[in-house]
Amino acid sequence: MVQKKELHDENMPSGKDIISSGKPSAKETKKNSAKEMLKVIIYAVVIAVVLKLSVVDTRVIISGSMLPTIEISDRVILNRLAYVGKLAPQRGDIIVFTSEEKALSNEDLIKRVIALPGETVEIKYGAVYIDGKALSEDYIAEKPLYDYGPVTIPDNCYFLLGDNRNNSYDSHLWLNPFVPEDDIKGEAVCCYWPLDRLSLY
């Protein structure tokens, strides 16, 4: 019987030497953290793009037609799904839309919904009247100094005014005062910038 000899290599590390401690080195930890951070950034960008394309959008306000509610340079968030399905704009909603007025073609505007389809609107004595009843409005800059109407709102259309009643180019001045529902892009739900004006509408 030939006895097998155990071979030993003095240069071969012992078992203890070749077994990892299981703890990553500082370099590996830093590398892993960087990878995780990159993943978070990528996910955040993807989510932001998806939301912007389908759910929310933003607008920078460049006119004073909605003072005092919305100021020039305010940044607002637009809910693009606000009126999807059977949901429809309600009186008092602040909406973003496109106008069929030639002077405003291809421009997004922001105004407040005042009169709904089928209602009759009239402006007189410094107040807005809906079907003969004065509308209570604590958000306007000042009482309107003009008279308008009465006019009845067609189906699937809306009558819109700016809160800055005497300095707003809106339904009371347009050749076609009615905004079709299909031209509405969504509801302005809040101001997110500047931070000292952070608020819901």
On the 0 to 100 scale, the average pLDDT is 83
Instruction: List the helices and strands in order.
Output: HHEEEEEEEEEEEE
Oligomerization state: single chain
Could you tell me the strand content as a percent range?
25-35%
- What is the overall number of helices? 2
Number of domains: 1
Structural class estimated from helices and strands: alpha+beta
Q: How does the major sheet shape up?
A: 8 strands, antiparallel
Low-pLDDT residue intervals, each spanning 5 or more residues:
1-20
Assigned CATH superfamily? Umud Fragment, subunit A
CATH class: Mainly Beta
Radius of gyration in whole Å, from Cα?
31 Å
Description:
The protein is of the alpha+beta class and 201 residues long. The protein has one domain (58-200): Umud Fragment, subunit A (Ribbon). Helices cover 16% and strands 29% of the residues. It has 2 helices and 12 strands, in the order H-H-E-E-E-E-E-E-E-E-E-E-E-E. Strands 1, 2, 3, 4, 9, 10, 11 and 12 form an 8-stranded antiparallel beta sheet that branches. Strands 7-6-5-8 form a 4-stranded antiparallel beta sheet, with no helix packed on it. Strand 11 (184-193) and strand 12 form a beta hairpin. The N and C termini lie far apart (95 Å). 22% of the residues are buried. Mean pLDDT is 83; it is low at 1-20.
